[in-house]
Amino acid sequence: MSSFPTYFEAFDYQQMLTDYPLGDDMLSRFQGMSRDVLHVLQNQRFMQVVDRAWQIPFYQRIWGNAGVTPDDIRSLDDIEKLPLISKSDIMESVENFPPIGDFHGLDNLPKDQRPPIVFHTTSGTTGTPQPLLFGPKSREVQSLLVARSYRFMGLKPASTIQSCYGHGMINGGHYIREAVTHYTNSMFLSAGTGVETRSSQQVSLMKTFGVNVLVGFVDYIKRLADVAREEGIEPGKDINIDMIIGHFGMESRESITKAWGNAELFDWYGVGDTGTIAAEGPDHNGMYVWEDAHYLEILDADSNQPVPEGGTGNMVVTCLFKDDVYPIIRFNTHDITQTLTNEAELDLPFKRIRGFMGRSDNMVKLRGINIYPQGIGPILAERPEFLGEFICEANRDDSGRDEMLVKAEVSTIAASRDSLISYYEAILKRKIGIAVAVELVGEGELTPFTQVDIRQKPIRLIDKRFD
């Protein structure tokens, strides 16, 4: 008979709970801790991850090509000697070593010693889906950090949580379910997207089972409030949501909290490869980076050099816990954020970030101005008739000049929309520093383009410049 470790035999579960505390234990461990003490912890975990990475062909190749040797990396202070990696490097590994690449470190392990693997893919919204592999330890730390975030935000004991994250091959819905069921005492409803569970059925589930927490992408969560009213169900009365935990980025919070009867909103950030990186706290003063588990660099999108404190740039993350399967060291997410420098109330040693502000690889540069499509919605929210849905269309004219058209849904009747366009154009010029065209449409007209009803992440940019 074959012999191999089972899931929880593959790592020290009790030690993981000690190393990565949550709830009151997290606050007891970290409140009052100095940045210097935190750095010592980070350094220890970083060197363990680097040692593991040197055993893997993927890193041997990339670091070797950059002229880096093991002796060059003696501490976390040497991290800038290592080259950045990104999704393109992972996908090149998959192409050259199909079907799952050589970045995970499984190939040099005898089959009877390989740990159980959790396998998912990315959604493929920016191209071919990327394989995602997790060992038992790193999978459980990822799940624990989600639950740590929820409990930090103030999740009530024995809550009922409904998740609008997708399932299938993508990671989101699965590891959120694992987080809630493994590390909280909440009841979990895995409703998924509108494709998996009809929107009308989703709001019926909320009412029937007394859901008080909604988690997912906020574009769809906002849409569900409209569906509830269409079904004769009043949020705040028939459905009492006290927390919405989503990914707000630059979205307008006021419209979402009002739509759900003044629910309290919490933001968090992570990517499929790394899991949860940062979470908004009960003080609503930015998102705290879980720096015991991640080392986050904010680098200029053009030069890849560190930005000054308070600066804006790409988030580059090193997972300090992934010393089993698929170590992640200096992974460029291409997601833009800003570090916060104002004083925090919670006396935690962790740096804080503003949150997701857009993607540097989804940026449109018009006449020297960088425009992030995700940031357009909150700008338009100044107007009371704006309904929250929008899409940007980038075009290039015959002379080679780039232009942008912003289409937005409004509640105003068709005959009166043209009279409002100048107001919208003025707001955008004032906020982004450049003139763009605006087209106003009615509610739901952009859904075929944004696909907000079927996608976890709605489309915000149609780039026609290279057609």
Automatic annotation (TrEMBL):
Residues 368-465 form the AMP-dependent ligase C-terminal domain. GO terms for molecular function: ligase activity. It comes from Thalassotalea mangrovi. Keywords: Ligase. Pfam families: AMP-binding_C_2. InterPro entries: AMP-bd_C_sf, AMP-dep_Lig_C, ANL_N_sf. This is Phenylacetate--CoA ligase. It comes from the Bacteria. The lineage of its organism: Bacteria, Pseudomonadati, Pseudomonadota, Gammaproteobacteria, Alteromonadales.
